[in-house]
Every structure is written in C-alpha cells, then in structure tokens.
Amino acid sequence: MADLENFEVQIHRYERVLVAVDSDDFGSSRPAFEYACTMAKMFHLPLGIVSILETGDLNIFQTLSRDVLSNQRTAVAHLLETYVEKAKNFGVLEVAPYLSEGKPGRTIVDSIIPMFKPDLLVVGSERKNNPNDIGSQASYMVRYAPCSVIVVRS
C-alpha cells in the first residue's frame, strides 16, 4: 500500500504502432485500423500496417498454380496500399506496409513484430465461425506478442 500512496500517475506513451488488417474481413479490420490511425496521428507515431496472405485458405490446386498465388498476392498488396493511402490521407505522417504469408497470428508475432519493433499491436476481433480470420487470431497475438496488444471489437 505504501507504494501506491507514493505513486504519481505519469503519461504512458507508445513509440510505434502496428495494426493488423485482414483482406477478407473489413468488418473487424476497420475499427482496429481507425483506432491505430487515431493513435498514430494524435501522438505523431510511426504506423505499420500488416496483412497476411493466408495460404492455408487455398486448396492444394490453388497453391500449385503460380497464377492463382500471384493474383492473391497482388490483391492483398493492393489492399495494403489502399490502407496506407487512407492512413496518409487521415494525417498519419509515417506509414509502413508489411505483407507476408502464413497463419496471421504466428506470422505477425514471429516475423513482422521483430522487423517493425512496435510497442503496441492493434488487432480487430469479431466472433465468426471461421478460425482463420484475423479476429480469431487475436488471442494468439495477445498471448505471444512481446508488446502491448489492444483488441478492438467491431
């Protein structure tokens, strides 16, 4: 109790924000993206935007077809660039896109976070039956991310 009585509240600031957006789920990505952009703009923080091409969603024939995989990569890259432009138009000064492939939670925690080095990860979450949506990956990221994680519900 003595520690609490001598404690003075200080401003807690983050230095770098990373937001995960799902190419298949704008409903849960939108609130997370808006929150991350708001934080980045208000506090002049660098913003990383990550989207993961979920290769596990493709069937075996699609993964063997170079055209299908290439088209999927192009579509996710275009979506990511759209998010980058939206963030810049909103007033975020420094924005970096990240595109990778695999399971969203694991890929973000193991590959993207070490690369971008955020101290805050923002993810959306929406209850759905599909366990591969980025929202259902939120619990994995909350559990294993080495930084603070905010889950924004739609």
- Spans of at least 5 consecutive residues whose pLDDT stays below 50 are none
Q: Structural class, from helix and strand content?
A: alpha/beta
Strand content: 15-25%
CATH fold-level topology: Rossmann fold
CATH level-two architecture? 3-Layer(aba) Sandwich
**Tally of strands:** 5
Largest beta-sheet details: 5 strands, parallel
The total domain count is 1
Give the ordered list of helices and strands: HEHEHHEHEHE
- CA radius of gyration is 17 Å
Morphology: globular
* Helical stretch tally: 6
Q: What fraction, in percent, of the residue positions are helical?
A: 40-55%
CATH superfamily: HUPs
Please give the oligomerization state of what you see.
single chain
Rounded mean pLDDT is 88
CATH class: Alpha Beta
Alpha carbon gap, first and last residue: 38 Å
Provide a descriptive summary of the structure in words:
InterPro entries: Rossmann-like_a/b/a_fold (IPR014729), UspA (IPR006016). Pfam families: Usp. The chain is α/β, with parallel strands linked by helices. It has a single domain (14-153), classed as 3-Layer(aba) Sandwich (Rossmann fold), CATH 3.40.50.620. The chain has helices at 2-6, 26-43, 60-64, 66-90, 104-116, 138-144; strands at residues 17-20, 47-53, 95-101, 120-125, 148-153. A five-stranded parallel sheet has the order 3-2-1-4-5, with helices on both faces. Helix 5 (104-116) packs across helix 6. The radius of gyration is 17 Å and the shape is globular.
